[in-house]
Every structure is written in structure tokens, then in C-alpha cells.
Amino acid sequence: MDARLAELGLTLPEVVPPLATYQPAVQSGVYVYTSGQLPMVEGKLPVTGKVGAEVTPEEAKDLARTCALNALAAVKSLVGDLDRVARVVKVVGFVASAPDFTGQPGVINGSSELLGEVLGDKGVHARSAVGVAVLPLDAPVEVEIQVELTEA
Asked: How far apart are the C-alpha atoms of 94 and 36, rounded to whole Å?
């Protein structure tokens, strides 16, 4: 999987340290569940605010890609190798939305597309894209994923 990331010009970031009392990812049986991942880059949010107001849908879609990369980093930190991912089962994306913004699915496509680029058919998943009033640190987007692992 590292070769595929390099081919795409991507590198997994360091795992974002928890902002409260939780783990970035936990494993239960053959499943790994990530905590909600903010679009942190080098410990900071590159943009804050509501999508459809201070943040454009295009910016938010790019931030959702970053969330997915951060989620993959959390998975790898727990299991050691992304080649153990049998498939992405579910993606849940939260979009801090201006009251009249209804393009949440398009924003979360950033995460879905990134997972497909990196994992191919293993990246195809079920998904929810939810508009919310506010997210931690005034982040525009937050994404969590569930993956199934191959047997060790």
C-alpha cells in the first residue's frame, strides 16, 4: 500500500493526537473503527468555519481527503500495515454547514474518492454524509471510517 500512496504522490501523516479522552482507532475482531478525524495538517486546521459560508464546497472536499488520509494513518498505527485492509466497510462524514448548505454528499466525496484511489475496489464502502451545526475546533469537516482486516 505504501507503493500505491507514493505513486499517487501521497504520504500518510503522523497520527493526529487525541483532542480529548479517546483513542484514534480501536480494533474489535477483524474490524478497526477510527475516531472522527479532523483535517489536521501538521497539528493545525488549515481552514475553519462553516461550509457554504466561510468555506467553499471545493475547499471542504479537499479537507475531506485530508480526513481520510488521517483515518488511514490511524488504522496503520494500530495494525502496522495497510495491506491488511480487506475493505473499507463504512465512512461517516460530518460537515459543519451553513443553514442553507445541502451539498454534504459532494463534500464527503473527497474522502470516498481518496479511499478509492488508494485502495481500489477495497475502498468501496457504505456511507453517511451528515450536516451539523458545529464541529470541534470549528473544523469544517470530520470523517470516521470502519475497515475490515484480513486475517493476520
From this structure: 9
